[in-house]
Design goal:
Elements lengths: L37 H14 L3 H18 L1
Helix pairs in contact: 1-2
């Protein structure tokens, strides 16, 4: 029996297009989605705006502090 290769998507190694180095560069971050209560998200956005940073950067800082306290205690 013949293998159907017509509708298969060829695998590409890594990111990018056909040319080496094509595509968006790696950021060094991993995208993660979490469900949070709306009031918590609003507070995070307000705090980030007050600090002049992004919500992602502020949340990363909070998580680092919390995890370091947890591992130290």
């Amino acid at each position: 029996m013949k293998k159907n290769t017509k509708n298969q998507i060829p695998e590409k190694p890594g990111r990018g297009g056909k040319r080496p180095g094509a595509g968006r560069p790696m950021t060094g971050h991993v995208r993660a989605n979490y469900s949070l209560p709306p009031d918590l998200v609003d507070g995070l956005r307000q705090a980030a705006e007050a600090d002049g940073t992004t919500a992602s950067a502020l949340l990363a800082e909070f998580l680092r502090e919390g995890l370091s306290r947890r591992s130290a205690g």
